[in-house]
Each structure stands twice: as C-alpha cells, then as structure tokens.
Amino acid sequence: VRCGMPEVVLAEGKEPEAFAGIMLAQVKAAGRCIATRVSPEHLDALRARLPPDVRMEHREAARGVILSTGDEPAPRRGTVAILTAGTSDVPVAEEARLIAEEMGCEVRTAYDVGVAGIHRLFSALKDLIPADVFVVIAGREGTLPAIVAGLVDRPVIGVPVSTGYGYMGGGEAALASMLQACSVLAVVNIDAGFTAGAFAAQVAHGGSRK
Amino acid sequence: VRCGMPEVVLAEGKEPEAFAGIMLAQVKAAGRCIATRVSPEHLDALRARLPPDVRMEHREAARGVILSTGDEPAPRRGTVAILTAGTSDVPVAEEARLIAEEMGCEVRTAYDVGVAGIHRLFSALKDLIPADVFVVIAGREGTLPAIVAGLVDRPVIGVPVSTGYGYMGGGEAALASMLQACSVLAVVNIDAGFTAGAFAAQVAHGGSRK
Amino acid sequence: VRCGMPEVVLAEGKEPEAFAGIMLAQVKAAGRCIATRVSPEHLDALRARLPPDVRMEHREAARGVILSTGDEPAPRRGTVAILTAGTSDVPVAEEARLIAEEMGCEVRTAYDVGVAGIHRLFSALKDLIPADVFVVIAGREGTLPAIVAGLVDRPVIGVPVSTGYGYMGGGEAALASMLQACSVLAVVNIDAGFTAGAFAAQVAHGGSRK
Amino acid sequence: VRCGMPEVVLAEGKEPEAFAGIMLAQVKAAGRCIATRVSPEHLDALRARLPPDVRMEHREAARGVILSTGDEPAPRRGTVAILTAGTSDVPVAEEARLIAEEMGCEVRTAYDVGVAGIHRLFSALKDLIPADVFVVIAGREGTLPAIVAGLVDRPVIGVPVSTGYGYMGGGEAALASMLQACSVLAVVNIDAGFTAGAFAAQVAHGGSRK
Amino acid sequence: VRCGMPEVVLAEGKEPEAFAGIMLAQVKAAGRCIATRVSPEHLDALRARLPPDVRMEHREAARGVILSTGDEPAPRRGTVAILTAGTSDVPVAEEARLIAEEMGCEVRTAYDVGVAGIHRLFSALKDLIPADVFVVIAGREGTLPAIVAGLVDRPVIGVPVSTGYGYMGGGEAALASMLQACSVLAVVNIDAGFTAGAFAAQVAHGGSRK
Amino acid sequence: VRCGMPEVVLAEGKEPEAFAGIMLAQVKAAGRCIATRVSPEHLDALRARLPPDVRMEHREAARGVILSTGDEPAPRRGTVAILTAGTSDVPVAEEARLIAEEMGCEVRTAYDVGVAGIHRLFSALKDLIPADVFVVIAGREGTLPAIVAGLVDRPVIGVPVSTGYGYMGGGEAALASMLQACSVLAVVNIDAGFTAGAFAAQVAHGGSRK
Amino acid sequence: VRCGMPEVVLAEGKEPEAFAGIMLAQVKAAGRCIATRVSPEHLDALRARLPPDVRMEHREAARGVILSTGDEPAPRRGTVAILTAGTSDVPVAEEARLIAEEMGCEVRTAYDVGVAGIHRLFSALKDLIPADVFVVIAGREGTLPAIVAGLVDRPVIGVPVSTGYGYMGGGEAALASMLQACSVLAVVNIDAGFTAGAFAAQVAHGGSRK
Amino acid sequence: VRCGMPEVVLAEGKEPEAFAGIMLAQVKAAGRCIATRVSPEHLDALRARLPPDVRMEHREAARGVILSTGDEPAPRRGTVAILTAGTSDVPVAEEARLIAEEMGCEVRTAYDVGVAGIHRLFSALKDLIPADVFVVIAGREGTLPAIVAGLVDRPVIGVPVSTGYGYMGGGEAALASMLQACSVLAVVNIDAGFTAGAFAAQVAHGGSRK
Ligand SMILES: Nc1ncnc2c1ncn2[C@@H]1O[C@H](COP(=O)(O)O)[C@@H](O)[C@H]1O
Ligand SMILES: Nc1ncnc2c1ncn2[C@@H]1O[C@H](COP(=O)(O)O)[C@@H](O)[C@H]1O
Ligand SMILES: Nc1ncnc2c1ncn2[C@@H]1O[C@H](COP(=O)(O)O)[C@@H](O)[C@H]1O
Ligand SMILES: Nc1ncnc2c1ncn2[C@@H]1O[C@H](COP(=O)(O)O)[C@@H](O)[C@H]1O
Ligand SMILES: [Mg+2]
Ligand SMILES: [Mg+2]
Ligand SMILES: [Mg+2]
Ligand SMILES: [Mg+2]
Ligand SMILES: [Mg+2]
Ligand SMILES: [Mg+2]
Ligand SMILES: [Mg+2]
Ligand SMILES: [Mg+2]
C-alpha cells in the first residue's frame, strides 16, 4: 500500500516488475523511498532496473529496502524505544525501527525481554526509560505491553504478533488482551510494525509547543 | 443441570418450585446438597417447603445455599488458594470457595490483588504459598493467572470472568489470553467458579500414593 | 476498574455502596479521585456519605464525577484535540475530555463533524491544528479517524463507538476499519473514552527532551 | 457453478477437461460464452479442443476468456464507471469490466485513485460523472465506495477486496465498513467482480420506461 | 447519525428533545425532512414543539415521520417494486417505501409472498414486472431475493431482516446467503430499509442518457 | 475416524502405512471394510500389502475403496435419492452414495440440477420421487435442500459443501441457510457425505413396524 | 413463520392481533391449525376472537395451541422417541412432541436421562427402542445425541438447546459437537423443536415401499 | 518462545540455526534442555553443532528432542495417565508424555480408546486408575474427557486436538464442548500437549502436605 505516508510501499502482494516500477517512480519524484515486506524476487527486480544515481540499502532483518538519490534522512529528533517479548517478534520490531529511523528518530531496542524473569525487563527498561514513547511487541497472550504501560509514564503502543496456535492464535488473543488491558495502551493491527513505528515517530517528534 | 457432582444443583434457569423439589429430594437421598446461582425467589421457594429436620445455610457472597440433615462435611484435606484480580471477580471466587470447602478443603483467599502493584501480589502469595493448588480469577485481559503461574510451583487454574466491554468483552479476551499463555496453566469456562473449585479440590485431595 | 491510573474508578458494574466506599478511601489516600460511567444510584450513594471536607463535582455529559480535598489539578500542559463524527459519540468524547483535563491538558473539541460535508471538517481542523495530538471518535463504519490522520502531522488515536446495527454493528466494523486503515493510526477499545483521553494526555505532556 | 447468467462459467475449482467441455457445449448452444478466474491449465485445455469455427479471446488482466461463433456483443447501452482504491484491486475491476462490456455497456475506469490525495479522486470523478452507475472497489478498510457515494447522485456498488492482513483482513473489514456506511451504497461479496459488473450493467441498461 | 442524505434523521438512539431540535432545524433549512425508527416518545417531543407552519405526517407502518413547510415531493419518476418473504419483514419494507416515495418514485408492493407456493410469487411478479428495480426483503435463510433475481431482468437489491433464532439468527444467515447467491444480486445491511429504498430510487431515476 | 459405523475408515490425515494396517485388520475381522477420502498414496500402500484372498474395489469419484473377503453387501433395502446443485458437489454426493449402497440401499442420483431452471429440477424430482429419503447437496448459498423439502413429503437431509469464496465461504453460508430454513430439513456437517449417506440409509431401511 | 408446513404458525414476534387473524384464517381454510411459542398475550387475543365452531386446545408445556373445527388428527402412524439430557430441555421436547403427534405419530418420551448415570439411559432406551426414529435434545456440550446414536440402529436427530453460559454458550457448543460427532447423526437449528418433530414424523411415516 | 518452564524450547517457527544456538546455550547453563515440535531441519542443525559432551535423544513420536550433559531426570514422583480418543491424537499425547516424564513422573498410556465401545474404555481405565491425574486427548466433538471425568475421582485435564473439518473443525468444537462440559474438567489450548503434560506433572508431584 502506498498510503498514509506516500513514500512507503508494501511489497507483499505486488508483482516484482510492477513493484520495481512503482519504487523507481517514487524515488525519482521524492528523492527517497522505502519498501517493507520485500521478498528476494522483489529485490532482484529492483536491482535489475536500478539506475546508477539511485542508492539502494537492504535491511534484511526488517525485510525492508530504502532507495535514495543521495541525501540523508533528517537529523535525529526524539527517541523511540522498541521492546519484544520473544525472538519471533523481531521482524515486526525491525520493520518499526526502519520507519522510525527514516522519520528521523533515535531508536533503542530490547528484544526477547518477555520471559527471562521480570528483573530482565526491569533492567531493560532502565536503559530505555529516557525514551519519548515505547513500542511493545508481543504474540500469544500479548501481555507485555500492558505490563510496560504499568511501569512507565510515556505512551505505550502495543503491537500484537501473529504467533500462537489453537484458539485465537495468529495474534488474535494478543490483540484482544491489549484492547481489554487495564493499563493505558493504544494498539495497532496484528503484525503492523510499519504503523507502530510511524505512529511512535509522530509522538517522538513532539507537539507544536516545542 | 444437575451434573458433574450429583449433589450440586445449578439454580439459574430453574423454576423456583421445581428447584425446591429437586433440592429436597436430593438432601433426603444424600443427607447433604448444595445449590449455586440462587436467586431470592429460589430461596423463598426453598424456605416455604423446608421440613424441620433439614438445615439450610445461605452463603450470600457465593449466591449459594447448602441443605443438610445434620452431619458436617468431611474433615479438611488439602489447601486451596483463591485469588482475584479485581473486586468484580469476587462472586465467582466465592462460588469456587463454597464447593472446595464442601469437598473438605481448607481455603485461603486474596481478593483484588491485580492492581495495587506487584508487591501487593507478592505479599499475598507469601501468605498463600503452602497451598496445594491455586485458583486465579480475572476478567478483562485476564493476565493474573499467567503471572501467578510464573511465580509458584503448584498447579494454577485460570478462571476468566465476564467483565470488560467492547471487543472480546464479557470474558472472551480473558479466556483467550489464558489459553494462549506461555506459563503452565489450565482453564475452565467463563465464570465457572463451581468447576474451578471442584477441580482444585480434586487436586488438593492428593493422589493415590498418599 | 481501579487500574492503569490508580485514582480512576469504573463505576459501572459496582454496587453503589461498595463504589462509594472505594471512592472515599481513594480520595482520602490521594487527595483527588475520578469515577467514570456513574449512574444516578452511584451519585446518591456518594452524596449520602460525602464528608464535609471532600468536594464533589459531577460532569454529566461525561457520566463522570470528581472528588477532591481541595487542590486544583496540575496547570495545563499540552493540548488535546477531540473530534466526533456524530452526536451519539459525544458521551465517549466527554469521558476522554474529563481525563485529559484532569491530567493537566488543555482540550479543544469539534463534535459532529463527520457529515455536514468535508469543508466543515476542514474548518474544524483549522481551529484545532495547533494541538499536540488528536482523539477522533466514530461509530458505524468508523472512517473519520483515518481521514483526519491523512490531513494532520500529529498522532491520531481512533476510538470506535458502539453504534450501528446489523452486521458488525455495535462498533465492530469501526474497530476493524480503524485497524485496517492505510493512514497511520493507533486504536483503543470500543467506547474506551478513558483510555483514549489518558493516552492522548501522555502524548501531549511531551517526552523527556523537553 | 454455472449460475446467475447461464453463459458465464466460473473456471476456478473445475478440472480443465471438464471446464473445456462445458464451455464448448455452451458456445455451441448460445453462440457466445464467457469464463472467469481462468488458469493457464484451463486455457490449455480449451485451446487443445477448440473447433475452427469458434473464436477465443483471452482477457489476461480479467483472468477471463470469451468464446464466440462470430457475432459481436450487443451495441453499447448505458455507461458503467469502475474505480479502484489501489493497484491490487485491478483484477477484480477487470473482471467487472469484462462482464459489463459483454452485457453491452460502455465502461470507463479510474484505477488507484484512493491514495494520491482527494484532488486525484475529484478529477477522476469529473471524467466519469456522466456514467449511469459506479462500481467502486477497495480492500483493507474499504472506505472509497462510501466517499464516492457522498459525491455522486447515481447508484454506487461497493466491492470489498481480499487484501489486508491481521484482524478482519482478507476483505472482511472492507465488507463490514461498506455495510455500515452512512452513505447510500449497495454491496456484493468479497472479490465478486462478476456480480458487481453484471448488476451495474442491469442498472445501466435503464428501466422499462425508456 | 444524520448521514447519507442530509434530510433523513435516524431517531433511534437520540434523546427525544435533541431529536426534535435537529428535525426542526432541518425542516427550516430544507423545507422538508424525514425521520425513521421513530418511537412514541420521539413523536411526542416533536408534536410539543411543532410550529404552526410545519406540517407533520406520521407513517406508522414505516415507523417514520415527515415534516414539511408546504411543498410536495417531486413528481413520480421511476417505479420501485418492494417484496417481502414474510409478514415480519413489513416494517423494513415500509421504511424502504417511505424513502423511495419521498425521492419521487412510484412504489408497488407485494408482501408475504415467500411461502404460499411459487405460483403466488409468480402472479405477484406479473403485477410488478414493469418496475425499474426490485427491493426483496427476507429474514431467516433469506433466499427470496436470489429467486426473484433469477426471474427478472432488472436489478434486484436484497435486504436481510433480523428474524431467525439460533445459529446465525438475527439476519446473519440471510446476509450470508444473499452475498453467496449464484444470482446477480446486490445487498445492504441487515434491516437497512432506508438504504435499500434510497438506492432503489437512484436506480429508478434512470441515468444520464435519459 | 473409525467411529459410528466400525467398518468405515477416514483415510485423510492417516499415514499410508498405518492406514493399510488398520484396513487389513478390519477386513480380516469383519469380512468387509470401506475407506473414504483415500489418496493415491493410501491406495499404493494398500495394494502393496493386499493378501490374495482380499478383494479391493476402488471407487474413484467417491474417493473411496472397499475391501472384502468375498460376500456381497446385503440385498437392496430402501431407496435413497441424491441430488446436487452443481458439479463441484459431486465428490460429496459420490461419498454418500458409496455408503448408502454398502448399507444395502438402492441409490438414484440427479446431479447439477440447481441451475438450469426450476423445470430441470421438477423433471429430476419426478424420476426420483418414489425414493424413501432425499440427500440434497449444495454449496455457496445452499438453498436447494430447502426448495426440495418444499416439494416432497419424504425426509430431506441437507449437506453443505465447502464451495464459495468471500464472506462465509467454504460452506458456512450454506450451513447457516440450511439451519435457518423455513422448510423441514435436517443437516449434517460441511462436506459430510459419509454421515449423510449413512443417515439416509438408516431412514430408508424403514422402522420396526415393517 | 408460516412456512414448511402451511398449517403451523410461529407466534413469537407477531403482534397478538395479527397472530389471531392469521390463525383464524388458517383454521377456516384448513380445518386445523397449530401455533408454537405462544405467549399469554397471544392466547388472550385468540380467545377474544374465537368463533363458537372452532375448538382451541392449549398445550402449556409445549407453549403451543391447536385450533380445529372438529376432526381428529390422522390415526397414529409410526413411533417417535424423544429424549432430553436435562430438565431445561423439556419445552423444546414438548414442541417436538406436539408436532409429531399432530402429524399422526405415537410419541414416547424419556426426559432428564443425561446425568443420573449411563444405566438410567440404558433402561430408558430399552423402553423406547421399538421406535422408528429418535429425537435427542441436549444443551451445554450436547453429547447425548451422539451417545444414543452409538447405541441404536434407527436414525437419530440431534437438537441443540440454548443453555450453557460462557464460551460458545447458548447452544453453540452443542451444535458444534453434534455436527462434529463421530456417530451418524443429523442436526437441526438450536431450539428447533418444531423442525425436529416434523422431520422425525416424516421418517416415522415410512417410505413409499410400505 | 522459551516460556513457562525455561528449559523447554518450542522449535516450530524458529530458524534451525537460531534454534540450535538457543538449545546449546540452555543445555550448557542448565545441564538439560528439551525441545518440542522439532522438524528434521531443526535436528540437522542441532546435530551439526553438537559438542561431544552433550547427549542428544530424539523422541520421534513426540516430535521432541532432549539434550543433556549427563545426569538423569529426577526419580519418578507421581503417576500421570494419558488417554486418546483416536490415533490422530497420539502425537499430542506423546508430547505430553515427554514433558511429564522429564518432570519425573511415571506415565501410563491408553491410546485410541474413544471408539471400540465403552467396555474398551472401562478396561483401559481399570489399568490406569491408580494414577494421580488424567490427561485425556480428543479431537472432533471432543467428548472423551468429560466421559472419563464422570468415571474417575482424580483431576482430568482435557486437551482438544485440531482434527475435524467443516463447522468448528480444527479442534474448536472439541474446545467448546470441553469448556461447556457438565463434568468437572480443566482444559488447555488446542494441541497443547506440552502444557497438559507439565500441568499434570505439577498435580502428580503432590502438594506441600506430603
Ligand atoms: N484510500 C484507500 N482507502 C481504502 N483502501 C485503500 C486505499 N488505498 C489503498 N487501499 C487498499 O489497499 C490495498 C492495497 O493497495 P495497493 O498497494 O495499491 O495494491 C487495496 O486493496 C486497496 O483497495
Ligand atoms: N491486573 C489485572 N489483570 C487482569 N484483569 C484485571 C486486573 N486488574 C483488574 N482486572 C479485572 O478488571 C475487572 C474489573 O475489576 P474491579 O474494578 O476491581 O471490579 C475484573 O474482572 C478484574 O479481574
Ligand atoms: N469417541 C470419540 N469422542 C471424541 N472424539 C473422538 C472419538 N473417537 C475419535 N475421536 C476423534 O476423532 C479424530 C480422528 O480419530 P482417528 O481416526 O482415530 O485418528 C481424533 O481427533 C479423535 O480424538
Ligand atoms: N421463502 C422464504 N425464504 C426466506 N425467508 C422466508 C421465507 N418465508 C418466510 N421467510 C422469513 O421468515 C421470517 C418470518 O416470516 P413471517 O412468519 O411471515 O413473519 C421473515 O423474516 C421472512 O422473511
Ligand atoms: Mg503507563
Ligand atoms: Mg508455575
Ligand atoms: Mg497523519
Ligand atoms: Mg450518492
Ligand atoms: Mg435477474
Ligand atoms: Mg417437505
Ligand atoms: Mg446408530
Ligand atoms: Mg470425576
């Protein structure tokens, strides 16, 4: 989807050729363009048609790619903390990070902090706490965001992840428990790393008073 | 439905007159008989027909009533701990307690420990920990059972409660998050205080080796 | 639920007497205490037991009540804009406003801007745009939040409202369309005015850099 | 199922050999016959058995094929406008177009008008507005049909498309938001390009008075 | 929600006083104004505040009311046929009729034709067939619209009705079977008489060529 | 599942080797044994281990296989009529036929009678009507069983089939419309040809009076 | 619904006056007419308008009423056995009995046999077994029909009942478990006593051979 | 997710290389480590990196693997009985067994006892009855756990299995019927052999009194 933020393209579901065409048109028009959920076929199609004056950066963990015609993203403005409960949540976290960094934020991460005991979470939070906003990513029962929201004063965005089998698996239990949470929490769609990262960057940028 | 344990009657959905008839037949046959989800109308019908040799005990918080022809329940055997996350969960907890006590268990409770900070939960658990089994009752996102299961070595039974509005309200989010929980947890139906209490008593009674 | 933010009590589902007890305990402990979804019976129970040194303020449109022992809320810090698509959404909006104001934010509102043509929305946004964050509340198909998110640079929080009959009525279609939105949007539970208002206040307060 | 309009065959789910047999029987009987959702295997089976006096036209973008024994479809009668929100919606749009043209309508299209700003939509509508009826196709949150219905006086048929992941993905959120829409809108099943095109043609043909 | 067509007000869910205020403002501004799903309380509030120069017409079977300052609706343009499967569907049919007539169409009806044998339906259709468009309303399994669509050449709009208990009751089975129908059919939300009537009127008005 | 009727094995989901073992044990014990949903791999495993004194019959259209050690099924007793709405429903119909014949019934079929006009159905029924019971199989909106039930006096068993895409596709709309049907109809699970055939045979066998 | 069998009227959801009119028209036309789900208000309306030559019989347990102008139902033909798991299922059973008797069948019943141990069921079945067909009615987990089907050779019709709270309560778990049952079982809608009774009567009548 | 019990790793969904790394780190730290849902690729990765001082045991039926640096699991303490209704349930049963044995319990099993008649179940139970706790595993309608719970005095844990097609297939009907069961039963997620086995072991270990 080229929507919301015009310079981001969702590769998934697009023919590689068509995808490459859209990307190159966008980078030409805007100087910079990101894609998420990029497959090897999408990358090949892009590489085959890449003009010499366009730089291409592949972020494997985020399944993302960035095209640009030279200029750096804006200087860092605001800090986003990204936490995951497990290791399966990392690709969604990396997608969020990619966008937040592109939107000029500093990003700090703490992955796989949902299990090895609450002290591990506490010490991770201590490192992250100067952050302006927290993105907390979890599958299965999805309780980590509510726990973090009970411990920090800044806004917490919950991201359900499509792990978990059986009843309400595939992220549905996580979505439900985040929406029902007693803590103050806002939520995005299952696996929606892009939306979470972009929303967090908007928060981190700070409002009009500043 | 008079099911599971024949001497327990679910009053809800039964005509008061029919209910009283079933109860009196059972106490006559078995010497002792419990009902759950009892309304004032059920109580009135029972009182109006109560023979002098049958003793009736009304447990208001549990919405329960016990008829007996004299003899005490069996001596205490095993200890059941019952915790609730909030105050709305208490009627379900009291239903569980009523049955567990009738089945001869000692019951210890800690209600409303889901919110006032994790230390409150820690100190509650300290008092309860010699228990043989834990029944943990929570609505909305239903995370308390999983947290308790991460802290104790004995079996934890999660009971979802029909609180919470909106998406997956009415206990569904709680049920889902308990079934998806990473901790080791077994679950009963939404609001099923009776089943949880009876199952816990079976665990607390201890197995054949003893 | 006394959860998330300890000084807020959800009156709905609580016995009036028990409710009043909880409120008075809280205001004594914390100097200030809010309740939402308050019925006339809850108010009566509160009034009957109100000590002379506790001030009670009833916010009818928000179905809320504030108890305090004297001191004002913190001075205004940050601005929250609240929009509704229709008039049925206003009680949810007022609940959000009550909390955001209690958390020290200036709140500006534009209600019923979802229909009378897009120009009405444009002119409403012009008045609101210096806001730090937008809470956009809509029922039925729930598209207003995504439209606003396409027009402003600050974070937009979508609140689905339980209007709409038939298929996916009661706010479910609105929740679904907000979670699927192409615009950058974070979402709270159906009718969750309290959560939206508190989250928006956290955003409006601004991060650590300031 | 060969249903609705007897001369249209849904290839999907039919064995290629059986499919070819049905098609040839129909073109022999009726002089003309269309198939939708045709795979390469279906095409091969058809080509292998095609008699010299039957003409075969493959419409790739619509995944359709037309067999005929000579005569043109009826002369153009009425105009159908077809719009899509994104590029993923185009195959459904092309299926609608194929049928509407076969039913003798002039078809005008505007694809991918859901995102590049509302002015792009306005200018697209300006070109299309003399149309008798609008088919508007969108996935994810599916709001484009309601927006178009608010802007034109002629009937608008919404077609949800099976894009979007996570909660109510696969077209369900789009279906829900179209059914809940405040604008006057009629809806067909998810991905049902054929039904939308045929219904639109019936509208465009005009009623008995003409 | 005053939406879709600005001069139609959905009374349901509005406070009687607020409802009356909205209605009177609209009739003053537009000379004419309709409300649907009107309760006796809504009517009383309206009557109490009705100025002498506003005429009020109550359509009981349609649960509707029309306010006007004198001028007739536009002269008849196009014919809409409305059929129901049973008698429980009649209020939805009358709501559709009210709107279609207000939009200047002639309306012909055949109610309760779903059961007394297929000949009853045939003879009803014979009377209705010169219509430009058919609105077919049915609850439970909702098959009547598909049957009618198989018998007529003009567009058929299916309206599911919230009858039927048990699995997929309340109109859901009817909605599902209409969306899955083999015949060419467009659908509106469960009980959405207003939308069906307005959409049918748009079809009946005829397109730009006329 | 070897359940209900002990000599029928569901091949699907079983390892070919394990499947062959179960089949051969059963034919040895009972002289006769059927399997349904048999893949080529299952057939190969069976053939490889088939002893010379066991006869194997492969019913391809029914995806079934029959093992026997000689004796014929019981003589024909009762007549079962099987109808399908489309051609995609035929494998389910053939599974029903296989079982009903094995249970000693005469089976008459009329396939693909749901579309080519109601007269085609009428003439099919005329041939079938002396049947004792009707199995009517349909996917998508699943209305054929209800129509047949309105035309015949003998019991009609509806079988939903997993065709149809989009909302409530995969047989769910068909199941719902059959359960909601106004006609007198009993239903089995989606695609459950075996259950329908066996139930029909029980009906056709006739009761104790005969 | 006056559908399926023309002389049966579903009172529920009909205005008492309209209901009485429909009933009297039917008894005049057909000599005999039944209604189910009749409220006291329906009865009053009927009594108030009952002509002297129409006899009215009220079957309270079945919530049914029978109007007739004299002649008895047809002589008994076939035997239907009706079993319930609990006492809450009895009204549905009585509705089934009313119809089956009206259709000329002998009906034998065994109520509340789902719990008091399997021997109680065995002895009940012994009395019922000469029956031509079994209607087995159960709520909550709904397993009784499958158990009966495993014990008898005649057709078993399962009727789910809307008891049971929590997850899949209201009869949904019962419907699901009956459709998934390993035994040979056909099913009707939740609480559909009328359909089950009429279907059973059709089976009991016996087929054409007799 | 490495959760619940830290020394158990869910292989499914993990990259083979990452999986092997996690396993080896755990066995080094804890002397012993189990994995469930292990694919051949996971095994290969493990074997390729296995140090000489780590012993690897592959439990094929349980899809599990155990790494250890020498010492045996704790001596047997408590007895767990595991039953399955069918043969498809065996992998889930073996997963439960693996964990329970690792936790030091004696395990006795009776597989495929759901069908060959109730006497087979009775004789199986006779062998198992000295067990401290029962794990009962069933798919489709999932009734076996409730039947066992009606026959034994020790706690019964129901495990729904993802067998069964059509309506509520994939284990959902089984889950629903277990949660609605009249017998006293606790439940785990669909296919959750690990959770059931670990919970059963906690029960079998016996409580604090011993
Ligand atoms: N403004 C929009 N409103 C609703 N849906 C949209 C919009 N833009 C794109 N989509 C949908 O998003 C999906 C992916 O779009 P695309 O990336 O263009 O293929 C398609 O199903 C579009 O209909
Ligand atoms: N920490 C928590 N985790 C899960 N649910 C909770 C928690 N705290 C409160 N609740 C639930 O919120 C609901 C309302 O709580 P209360 O306001 O105390 O009656 C109850 O069902 C509680 O179980
Ligand atoms: N009596 C029964 N009750 C419940 N489920 C059963 C029963 N018998 C078999 N099943 C289930 O049917 C599925 C297929 O069984 P099988 O064919 O033995 O692999 C398994 O999930 C079994 O649990
Ligand atoms: N042939 C039919 N097809 C579909 N629904 C029907 C049919 N006949 C009656 N109904 C529905 O059954 C419900 C009750 O009908 P009635 O008893 O006439 O009020 C209404 O919603 C009807 O639409
Ligand atoms: Mg917080
Ligand atoms: Mg534990
Ligand atoms: Mg924006
Ligand atoms: Mg319009
Ligand atoms: Mg037609
Ligand atoms: Mg019939
Ligand atoms: Mg049987
Ligand atoms: Mg037991």
Describe the 3D structure.
The structure is a homooctamer of 210-residue chains. With 210 residues, chain A is α/β, with parallel strands linked by helices. The first copy, chain A, has 2 domains: 8-68; 79-205, Rossmann fold. Helices cover 36% and strands 20% of the residues of chain A. Chain A has helices at residues 16-30, 40-49, 90-102, 118-128, 144-149, 172-179, 193-205, and strands at 8-10, 32-36, 55-59, 64-68, 79-84, 106-110, 133-138, 156-160, 186-187. In chain A, the strands form 2 sheets. In chain A, strands 6-5-7-8-9 form a 5-stranded parallel beta sheet, with helices on both faces. In chain A, helix 1 packs across helix 2 (40-49) and helix 3 (90-102) runs parallel beside helix 7. Chain A is globular, with a radius of gyration of 18 Å. The two termini of chain A are 32 Å apart. The mean pLDDT of chain A is 90. The interface between B and H is large, with 40 and 39 residues. One adenosine monophosphate sits between chains H (85-89, 112, 114-115, 138-144, 161, 163) and F (1-3, 10).
Helix proportion of chain A: 25-40%
* CATH architectural group of the largest domain in chain A: 3-Layer(aba) Sandwich
Largest sheet of chain A: 5 strands, parallel
**What ions, cofactors and ligands are bound?**
adenosine monophosphate, magnesium ion
The overall average pLDDT of chain A, rounded, is 90
- Proportion of residues in β-strands of chain A: 15-25%
CATH fold-level label of the largest domain in chain A: Rossmann fold
Which chains make the largest contact?
A: A-C, 40 and 40 residues
**What oligomeric state best describes the polypeptide chains here?**
homooctamer
Number of strands of chain A: 9
Instruction: Report the uncertain regions of chain A.
Output: none
At the first level of CATH, what is the class of the largest domain in chain A? Answer: Alpha Beta
- Termini separation of chain A comes to 32 Å
Q: Tell me the domain tally of chain A.
A: 2
Q: Looking across the biggest beta sheet of chain A, what order are the strands in?
A: 6-5-7-8-9
The radius of gyration of chain A is: 18 Å
Following the backbone from N to C, one meets helices and strands of chain A in this order, namely EHEHEEEHEHEHEHEH
